[in-house]
Specification:
Layout: H1 3-19, E1 27-29, H2 45-51, E2 55-56, E3 60-63, E4 72-75, H3 77-82, E5 90-92, E6 97-100, E7 105-110, E8 122-128, H4 145-166
Parallel strand pairs: 1-3, 2-8
Antiparallel strand pairs: 3-6, 4-5, 4-7, 7-8
The structure holds copper (II) ion.
């Protein structure tokens, strides 16, 4: 195989690899510019923040906080309601923390530092699949698979054309 055709083959692989990572997902910074902390004036801050957003499987939640001042624990609904972390699903204590929403249904997050959750540092989000399904525990495929496929196929054709030209 000549140098040119090896280069073309490499190009095809690069194109294919890059299209596989183009699934669209949204990263939401929890609390926006306020970040993840004890709300000072509005104890419903995180409820209000989540209210006007639609979260879909594959989206990320970015919890911005200073390590050692807060943490992020994913808990069960009773844990969220009572601000206890006895049923902790996961806990991250090094800020910032990025959590990918992998399942549909409700997700609950609290800060386990004493007094923080009762003061409002708690977040509940409802995660939907692309079709709007919120049945708990359903794993849905990444978004925009169909459109990515179209892009991939057209890029493969362009790559083949390049390959032919180079030979
Ligand atoms: Cu905290």
């Amino acid at each position: 195989m000549g140098r040119k055709s090896s280069m073309a083959t490499a190009a095809v692989f690069v194109v294919l690899a890059s299209t596989l990572t183009t699934y669209a997902s949204t990263t939401y910074t929890v609390g926006d510019s306020i970040g993840w902390q004890v709300p000072t004036s509005n104890s419903n801050l995180y409820d209000d923040w989540a209210d006007n957003k639609t979260f879909v499987v594959g989206d990320d939640l970015l919890f911005k906080f200073i390590t050692g001042e807060h943490d992020v624990a994913e808990v069960t609904e009773p844990g969220y309601d009572a601000c206890t972390n006895t049923d902790t699903i996961s806990i991250d204590n090094k800020g910032p923390v990025k959590i990918t929403l992998k399942r549909t249904g409700d997700h609950y997050f609290i800060c386990t530092y004493p007094g923080h959750c009762p003061a409002g540092q708690k977040l509940k989000v409802q995660v939907r699949s692309e079709t709007g399904d919120t049945t708990p525990g359903v794993l849905s495929p990444p978004r925009n698979v169909a459109s990515s496929l179209v892009v991939t196929i057209s890029l493969v054709f362009v790559s083949i054309a390049t390959f032919v030209l180079l030979c």
